[in-house]
């Protein structure tokens, strides 16, 4: 066949090719991939005779693939491009500096500093009266040093800006690192030199033969060479949710970014990177946004496809509409569309933090206004002294703004980001690859985990240990001699061809190890069973290659079986089936006996077999699989293969095997930890209920004597649905609290259970549910869950894409580690808050009262900015990087409504505040007597720094340093030094800050308003600072239960707090965004001063979104490989997949306002186009134009960001 087609090809080559040795140009392949269905088939037949002809033109073999020589691969990359989409350049450091400078508070300070600088060079006329009012004006020499304060403020502003920019820069770098790590994880199976190998997606080249299977996300465009029951979900490109059946005769065109929902096959790769359909749409979207000159260069390089894109644009109506993407009009509609976006509920922590920041900001603004007005009234107003007063006003203004800078906790988002980024980095070592940053924090609140059985709780290394064959139940694998030859032949042929050819058993990697299982583990167990019977399955596969299989019904969650049809030489057919024993036995009407003959198998015999064979196997935790076959005689003609119910019946049972999958040794202990930590573990599995119960007992999910439910999927559905078949929340609420095992469950049941638990209102806390999944159909449940865990080894691309965290070792203990890290993030933020609020309270009160009483703040602007740096940037680094300890698993989850600042923390904040204020005010008003020095109070306007105020400042900073050690514990523990050396960052920062403080005091001079202190004075300052640790012990002795009057702060918003009319407005929204509501309610203007929070939350969001395909998208430019780009299906109409048995149709009716994916409006019909080729542009572009589609924003939008745009 191949030779004929090659001859045909030779004759059909008319035009000369300019692509070196390949007799097929890039342009030709691009135009071929724009065709769909029968048009594509016609074009292939006209130009190349068949796919083999195209393979020959591309110098590839449909069976052996490419040679794999580096020279050949490089040449292909040169001619046809690479499988990459070039990323957008990251922001430069200078751009980040410019962004940091936009902070309103900093701008106010800069203005104040410049005014102060200007006025320091201005000499007001001498007047005795003014002198009295201002506490005496300084002499000539001192006046000349007046510029220093303004310059110092400018310098400290530069410091703050550089630190912020550096943080943002390092976060972006980390984020890109994380992204490239995810990309490197993605591999794809190709055939090279006859060997099946896995290569990174970016290494795929045109001409590769790729093996595709259920659950894959296609990384490139291609043409089907051979397929078994292949169905593709092309909704990410076309918006059509129906699964498209792919066959060689009708529709062999496979497109990048689409999902394989069923079946398997091989494809010839024809377009990659920017030339694939996804890449073209990506280019049309203007996502590259390079400068024009770069575009010109690009055009020169890729003459083929760029022309082709132009042609597509010119020909196609939809594309014409796409062109004005960057015009004003489009931008307006974009804004509107963003404004109407369905809101998704923020993470618990973000909601609480935003609310807290809003509250603090309001309070501090009020305080500054009072301070400014109060100071103004301290001065006796005299007309002649106006110039002097202006200088005072500038001074008061600087003090006021500095108080605001100190009071606003802009370090909060920084602490969150650092804590999350640090956790994410460390979690990678614990086999958790976090895709959405906030998932690790949400995990700390988890109250329920719905786990798969296979691979997560068990080792996913399956072996056949029992078998019922030839009328006898063997407790271990029998010797080959005892099995009749006819049955043995059927077993050998049936297992060899009716297991995916990608599944195989490889030799052991090291001496004394076990053979490696590759592919589906249940099929590996069956192939291992053949090897135990001394038979070679590979010989059978070599004789019957995959291309010779007549028809394959692949396994899916509805069939729960797999069948393969072979055509015999005489025209008859034989079909082999394997599947869940209780399902397949119902379709058997005969069974093979000890003589190898078939006898009738009646329902009574089946019931006996279930009782005597299947139930005993299942109660030992074995998975039971039935193997059967059926003959279709030639005289009856060819059956209708599409009519599955007629085909899969009248089977003859060959044998039933019991497959063991041992429980992982570390799982029972991990589950015990979860239960102690207040987390309920539920097992959701497709296995038989007896098998599931046995495994659940071994794991410790079920304890003997407990009153818990184990249900099968059917029974579960019967209990939760009313007479009309609709799911009722009340019915689910009766079941889920006691449910521990859900067996024989479909992905729909899993989704229903997760949704039911999340939507339940019977417990006072809303449940936070984590779910594990590995199959394509687990997608909806993974997305619905608060945290979705996908399996890194066994998981399909679709499952990974829907998940928040990927378990790189598929192990349940990694989930427990994720819980530990999540709780640690929460505690780190609380530690930081406890420390920062103490500093806030003290600094603001000292500056405020000091300024009111002495008309000058004891802490100068520059000193305040140094304190701000200590408590914001350094403290967030020190406290947010505490490693987790096992003790975190000894408490219950915090829950959504638990305040961030507990009573114990409030007691610590107020207790330490009282101590620090007492010391500072004592020093301020009696310090000069205690140390026998000159008083620094009532100093003239530009007086030199005094020892008095230096001691106040030094003691204040040292108290913060010692209090930072106290802040390490937030639950009232006494030993604050416990594990301090496990966190070297903390030790380094505390020590480093102390050294810098010595330098500032001894050598800071006029800019820092400091004078060098003596050893005695230093010792007193250190002693008073150390007092914080002793005072901490006193505070922890006071029982919190006695302090009922203490308020907590930073709650999550309760639904009851939202006014009815606002709730009505929110009916249309997806989920209530509590934090954003809080913002809208408060005054907005003052909040622009919190611009830095905005920047950092934006980075957190970018971090999260960029790794999040389903929940808001980052700017697409930051995606590098085509495969990674398509894990962000912007072009998808939100998952409406009515034709897959994923989510029951009734779900759509009972999901209220809290439904995550609102039912989308169908896309409008594409505009009539002159070109009727249903080409790339036509196939999906109209999706973007219709504003009614709930598209996700391309840029992460933080609450502050949306505020800013609205302003």
UniProtKB/TrEMBL annotation:
Enzyme class: translocase
Signal peptide: none
Keyword Coiled coil: no
GO molecular function: ATP binding; ATP hydrolysis activity; calmodulin binding; metal ion binding; P-type calcium transporter activity; PDZ domain binding
Keyword entries, A-Z: ATP-binding, Calcium, Calcium transport, Calmodulin-binding, Cell membrane, Ion transport, Magnesium, Membrane, Metal-binding, Nucleotide-binding, Phosphoprotein, Translocase, Transmembrane, Transmembrane helix, Transport
GO CC field: plasma membrane
Cation-transporting P-type ATPase N-terminal domain mapped to chain residues: 45-121
Region (Disordered): 291-344, 1130-1178
Compartments, as annotated in UniProt: Cell membrane; Membrane
Topological relation to the membrane, as annotated: Multi-pass membrane protein
Stated family: Belongs to the cation transport ATPase (P-type) (TC 3.A.3) family. Type IIB subfamily.
Protein name listed in UniProt: Calcium-transporting ATPase
Organism in which the protein naturally occurs: Electrophorus electricus
